């Protein structure tokens, strides 16, 4: 039987049974609701406790808000339980590794302010990130009450398979429709100034997260949210607010790109040549779609850019893994030589 204190944080009978089979002896399930340096707040059967995280150089590292973990009686995190999904971008450090923004997410709200620069390229990039995470994306045009024109049709055209809504957290317009589409754990992503924290407060029904006004001149916001934090939603499910994203580098997002640009993928399947570059080849269905107005040149260029970036990152990662394997083999070879010398000296 699932204890009540963990139900608001997403634990159900199915998860409870699954985790009971794989938890280390002496550990109980908990969910990470906020990460700090070396410690984290976790929800447990008996409430929220402060837990100690493993060292960053240990096998158990890279914990993130939304993770399910096993903790012992001394509130030490001992085990990372299997993730159902994860929003991963390339590391802002420039290293060839992924950075998990949120884990075990079911719905991703891609937020952009309707009263500012509605950047279709950036929306496509965030869609690729969301689709790759194994969650369902919803594009939310926030601050609809302050916009002279809300480009719903333009955004819907670049978000096949995803619901696109215009909402106002100030007036409440569209919030009922948005709430009806939410499922499970919901994560908000988007740039600073997109109104994520204001929307999160509206969905939570309380002023939980701090908010700041954007600059009047360029509509840019400041990083008001500095931590990823998980909270229960009043109607069921949970919500994770995240800091504004300045950089949205892709990390092994081939499937996410394919789903984001499913229209281009569909047209490409009708090209005469299988290796068509969609430039000037005869029988190119993609060029024909652009000529007829079904596709735009901007969208094709965005597709090319993201695909090229993803291939570059994947190649870079492969080189890093190869270098690590070579280093391991060098260490093994050195140890074998030392062992051989030791045996020779004892003869």
TrEMBL record:
Instruction: Please state every residue range assigned to the domain named CP-type G.
Output: 95-248
State which residue ranges cross the membrane: none
Listed CDD domains: YjeQ_EngC
The cofactor note from the UniProt entry for this protein is: Binds 1 zinc ion per subunit.
Cite the EC number: 3.6.1.-
Q: What InterPro entries does the database record attribute to this sequence?
A: G_CP_dom, P-loop_NTPase, Ribosome_biogen_GTPase_RsgA, RsgA_GTPase_dom
Give the top-rank taxon of the lineage listed in the UniProt record for this protein: Bacteria
Show where the EngC GTPase domain sits.
103-246
Swiss-Prot/TrEMBL cofactor(s): Zn(2+)
- What role does it play? One of several proteins that assist in the late maturation steps of the functional core of the 30S ribosomal subunit. Helps release RbfA from mature subunits. May play a role in the assembly of ribosomal proteins into the subunit. Circularly permuted GTPase that catalyzes slow GTP hydrolysis, GTPase activity is stimulated by the 30S ribosomal subunit.
Q: What is this protein called?
A: Small ribosomal subunit biogenesis GTPase RsgA
Instruction: Tell me which species this is from.
Output: Nocardia aurea
Q: Which gene encodes it?
A: rsgA
